[in-house]
Predict the structure of Response regulatory domain-containing protein.
Amino acid sequence: MEPVADCVLIVDDDDLVRSMLLFAMQYAKIDAIGAASGDEALAILTESKDRIRLAIIDILMPIMDGPKTLAMLRTISPDLPCIFISGESGKYSPNMLQELTNIPLIRKPFQLPNLIDTIRSYLRPSGPPLEMPPQADPPLDWPPTW
């Protein structure tokens, strides 16, 4: 039996952001699946529970916001690690998010190399880091030219 590859679930209602993140994951050789809503993320996790090792969730989405999406995802996979991403956190302050979920918030716009390093740290067998990785300058060949 072939080993199951670790996969990242990217949940963002903005098609452009989601596509950009999926492209960046492909460039970084990280398997990823995109979802445009909390409901779609639930369906994907239900079908791919054994593959999904991390969820990256936008905070502000219509119908089911990021924290509600995370709560629903964790009914299926209680220990699923998550990173919130958002340009604006709406009614959720960073401190409130930390108290509610104990999950890091990465603000948009962010440096893709830093996000990729953070994702890779969650996919390692040792689990998530105790602290967020330090900010680093992007490599000279990043971002790729379109």
In short: Strands lie at 7-11, 31-35, 52-58, 82-86, 105-107.
